[in-house]
TrEMBL record:
Domain Galectin: 11-138
Protein name: Galectin
Pfam families: Gal-bind_lectin
SUPFAM superfamilies (alphabetical): Concanavalin A-like lectins/glucanases
TM segment ranges: none
Keywords: Lectin, Repeat
GO molecular function: carbohydrate binding
């Protein structure tokens, strides 16, 4: 089980072994009380984002999207805001054959249908007002 511990935000780390059906990325961290939001991205190479996970506290929603060939796709904005400023959180991103399944604090939040092949994912990036304690990768 690969782990990234206490990365300084912003960060970029490789996803050792890549993403594949059954592979989970588990992110444990905390949200500062003054946070406006943050992003966690599953990145393909240097210029494409397969999955952009972007909690926005001002809007009280979590935006999901992809950046492919230099263009952002259609935002997915449903589901509200289950994360709370000033609180710890656990986010689990499980790669499935057709989507990324997202759980927040142990509860299913959304499924994000792949817009680019999951095998292209090489890195995870984090940015914004968030404290990351640990990112682990679990695979079958």
């Amino acid at each position: 089980m690969a782990a990234i511990t206490n990365p300084r935000v912003p960060f970029t780390n490789s996803v050792s072994g890549g993403m594949y059906p059954g592979r989970k990325m588990v992110v444990k961290g905390g949200i500062p009380p003054g946070s406006n939001g943050f992003s966690l991205d599953l990145v393909c190479g240097s210029d494409e984002i397969a999955f952009h996970f972007n909690p926005r506290f001002g809007e009280q929603r979590i935006v999901r999207n992809s950046l492919l060939s230099g263009n952002w796709g259609a935002e997915e904005r449903s589901g509200g805001m289950p994360l709370i400023k000033g609180e710890p959180f656990e986010a689990q991103f499980e790669c499935q054959e057709d989507c990324i399944r997202v759980e927040l604090n142990g509860k299913h939040f959304c499924n994000y249908t792949h817009r680019t092949p999951y095998h292209k994912i090489t890195h995870v990036k984090g940015d914004g007002d968030v404290l990351i304690n640990q990112i682990t990768f679990e695979g079958k």
